[in-house]
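Good morning C.,

I know you're traveling, so I'll keep this short. The sequence:
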Amino acid sequence: MEFCEPSLFSFGIIADVQYADIDDESNFKQTRKRYYRNSLKLLQNAIDAWIVEKVKPSFILQLGDIIDAFNKTHDASQSALDTVLRECERGPPMHFVWGNHEFYNFSRDTLLSSALNSKCHSGHLLDNHDFYAYHFSPAPKFRFVLIDSYDMAIIGHDESSAKYQHSLKYLKNHNSNEDLNCPPALSGLELRFAKFNGGFSQDQLRWLDEVLTKADEMQEKVTIASHLPVHPLATEPMSLAWNYPELLSLLQAHRSVVCYMAGHDHEGGYHRDETTGIHHLTLEGVVETPPDSQAYGTVYVYEDRMVVKGNGRMRDREMMYPDRLAG
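The tokens, ready to paste straight into the viewer:
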């Protein structure tokens, strides 16, 4: 895909690096190989490419699971994180989303005090709440919002906390299996009710509603980033957020929203909401990308559209803004 006109700005996108210094293994469903060591090389290659782009991306969105859970098993969580962060520091500023593998390796308190807390370390707007979410504006009339899809979850929260107890009750209302990592059904949307997923608290939904209401009033174009997808046609059911219908309805109610980006489903996915025109883009996972390929993209932002220049498994896309923005 060739670009004949300069963009207003650009940014990089990448997800599910899941680096670990261990041998390759098959994934959870035994359908694809995971290249744990090579994922670091693919991250290095992506950053090298961003550094030498003619117009350097303004920032990078890293959509969660930057290291793998196996690091915890090998007592290598911090060393693995240090390894990937050394690479990340070479490139444009990076905004980190937290996924399930972040919580397999670290407590929420540890993450809050780490370099993965880009809410704290990036110097952008800080919001006083107990979930990991924030927003920033890289250019006039454009806003990016990072939200916490494990705000309601049983990973990452202390078992004595009210949020853990509420989340456990919510999950058990939908999943009666002794092993909550085992989905409650063999097919269908019920597959999402598993321990490795999570959702959005009512407090976070109210906060997001307020952010988007202001963006509507300011006639901004908003891109939302999280780890878990929220549209069933942009991912497999097992990768959806628990209470995705609530989040999806909220997005549909605000004309400022143009795109929702997520990771988690390593095969990737895409759907444009027929009613609102919102683009739902699920990124292909680096860890399941063969050594001779790649899985990252650069997004070029224009007045009327965003254009994804994909690499390797990630395809090019032109995403026109919804007509309702003019309403």
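Safe travels,
E.
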